[in-house]
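=== RUN LOG ===
request id: a7f3
mode: sequence -> structure
chains: 1
length: 309
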Amino acid sequence: MESKSFRAMGCQMSAFIDSPSNSVQEILSQVPEWFEDWEQVLSRFRVDSELSKINRQSGVPSTVSNIFWSVLEVAIQTEKESMGLVTPLVLPALEMAGYNVSFEQIARSGYDAAEYSGYPIGLLNDLIYGASRQSIQLPVGSGLDFGGVAKGWAANQAVERLAAYGPALVNAGGDIAISDYQRDGKPWVIGVMNPFEPERDLGSISVGRAGVATSGKDFRQWRKNGVFRHHIIDPRTGLPAETDLISVTVIAPNVITAEMAAKIVMLKGSQAGLDWLENETNDQAILVLADGRILTTEQIATTQWRPND
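=== RESULT ===
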């Protein structure tokens, strides 16, 4: 097993290939470069990124790159499948809530965001876009934050490239793409972080070809008038979501689907989220409530969920 760890997109990243070949280190050494290229297109915290330039040109038609267009297509599909609960048009609301610089800067400054009463959020239906020329026009005053969609897309892209060399796993800050079972047929064992004690896992899951994603309000949070706020914006209110959940880990056929489902469940809350998972999807999940309770979908045993004692 060969691996590569690095930081990108404001997160810790890691890539693994299960192969006996000595050549895999060479391909693994290229993974940080891939993420750097993608981040230069998709980061809202880089003033010279393509996304930042597009956001500064709301109301003006712009032709975008293949990478940008690919992620936008994923975001459009995600918004449709989530019935508008997961949309990248949350940028103005995020900035109003205080998340207008990278979280590392917020954490260092002890930022206390100003009071506000929410920000109206539109839908990607309001975008003017044309596939033939890969052109888009944002509504005036709006902005895009690809966020978890970008991470999931990047993890998926990376693992598809690495899979040519052997079974591969890419962890993009908690968005995990897995190409297949390991060479010996065994599943990959993934720890599920404890939001109350980050240094100690809640337990582990064992999965083969799949996607795993965790959405939570335990890490990216800050103060607003002495009250902690978080980065998960509810498009229905334009405010940080009011939910009884602190984190949700979803196992789905692919990481993009898992990312979307985890966000939906966070927004819906524990009971409505479990109902949606079990009635509308085949995804499996571990839900951690703010009071410390842990709930799981009924079929979670198929992923060999093993809680720690």
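=== NOTES ===
Residues 2-307 form a domain with the T-fold fold (CATH 3.10.520.10).
The longest helix spans residues 66-81.
=== END ===
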